[in-house]
Amino acid sequence: MSFCILPRVLQLLFDIYSATSFRRMTEDALKKVGIGLVAVVGLALVAVFALQKPIGFWLFQRGIEQNLGGNTLAGIEDGLHVGLCGTGSPMPNIDRAGPCNIVIAGDQAFVVDIGEGGGRNLALMGFNAGDLDGVFLTHFHSDHIDGLGPLQLFHWTRGSNTAPLPVYGPSGVEAVIDGFNAAYATDDAYRTAHHGEDVAPSSGGGSEARPFEMTGDSVIVLERGDLRVAAFKVPHDPVDPAVGYRFDYKGRSLCISGDTEKSANLERVCEGADLIVHEALQMEMVSELQAMLTAQGVESGAKIMFDIRDYHASPQDAAESAQAAGAQMLVLSHLIPPLPSAYLYPAFLGDAPDRFDGTLVVGEDGMLFSLPASSDAIKRRELM
To answer: How many angstroms separate the Cα of 5 from the Cα of each of 67, 69, 383?
Structure first.
C-alpha cells in the first residue's frame, strides 16, 4: 500500500460520484431512499478525515516495511543486468535524473556515470549504495558527475565501508575525485564525530580515483572473476577524454555509449553485444528550441542549443550503430530534449525504428534489463 493511497481514495470517491452513470443511479436512489446515501457518503468522508492521523501513521509503517525490506540485488538471477537510474540531461525534467546506470554482473555491482538524482533513484530501485564495487565515469561533464557526492556518502554510511568508493575513469579523474573529497571532507568529519567509527569509519569516506590511460581505441580496465570491462574512445569534442564501456560476463555483453557523436569505434568494439544503452538527441526538436529561444531574445540559450547538436548522436544515429554492431536491443538514454510524456516518443524517434531490426526502447528511470547467463534472453521490468 502506497503512502499516497489516502488522496487517491478521496479522488476515487469524487471521480465515481462525478461519473454520469453513477450520478444517474444516485439520483434514482435518492428518489427512493431520500438522503440516506448522501448521509452515508458524508459520514464516510468525515470518518476518513477524522482518522487521518492514525491512518497516516499506519500507512507510514507499512511504507517503511516495504521500502526498507527491499533488496533488488538479493533476488537477482545470475547474469548481466543494467538498470537505468537516470535517463535525463542537464535540461530540467521532473521524471528523469541525470545520466546514471547500474550494471550488475553476478555478485558485482557498478555504477556508470552518476548525475544529479542518480543516488536517490538507486535507493528507490531497491539498491543499497553500500553494496557497490565502484563507479565508472565516461567523461567529466558536470551532469555525469554531479551526483557523486551523495553516492559516496551513501556508499560509506549505508555499508559502514572502511575504504573509499573506487571511481574508474580516464586520465583526469584524479582531479575530479580530489575536488569532491575536498568538498566533502568537513562533512565526513561531522558524520564520524556524530555516528562513531562503527557506523562511519574515518577511513571509509570519499572516493578513490582509479585512472586508466587510453593507449588505443579500447583498453581493458577491469578483469575480476568472470567479468571483463573495456573502455573505448568516443568522439565528443571538445571533451577529451570521452569513453564508453563494454561489459562481458558469462557469455552476455552490453555497452554504454557515454556522450558521443555517431561512432564507428563504438560499432567496432560493441560488435555482437546483446544490448546497447546509447545517448540520443532529437535534432529537429532541439532546432525548434533554438528558434524559440532566438525569438525570445535568449541568445545564450539559443547558442547552446545550436552547439550541442554537433557532439551528440540522434536516435537515428544510435539505431544505425546498433544495427551495425548486431545488437539485439537498443535502449536510448540521456534524452535531449526533455520528454514529459510517452506520447512524444514517436516524434522523438523519427525513423529510427526503420534503421534497427532489434528491439528499440526509449529509456525511463527505473527500468531494469536482465541478460541471464547461458541464455540469449533479455528480460525487462520496472523498479520504480
So the answer is: 16, 20, 19
List the one residue out of 201, 229, 205, 236 whose CA is nearest residue 310.
236
pTM of the full structure: 0.86
Q: What is the mean pLDDT of residues 101-113?
A: 98
CA 212 from centroid of its chain's CA atoms: 25
| CB-CB contact of 152 with 184 (8 Å) | yes
Mean pLDDT over residues 325-353, rounded?
Answer: 97
- Overall number of domains in the chain: 2
User: What is the mean pLDDT of the segment spanning 218-228?
Assistant: 98
End position of a domain, from candidates 47, 68, 89: 68
Contacts of 380 (CB under 8 A, 6+ apart): 361, 367, 368, 369, 370
Q: Can you give the residue range of the structural domain that contains 148?
A: 72-382
| Catalytic hit among 113, 143, 317, 365 | 143
Closest to 256 in 3D by CA, of 78, 135, 130? 135
CA pair distance 233, 240, nearest whole angstrom: 9
Catalytic residue status for 188:
no
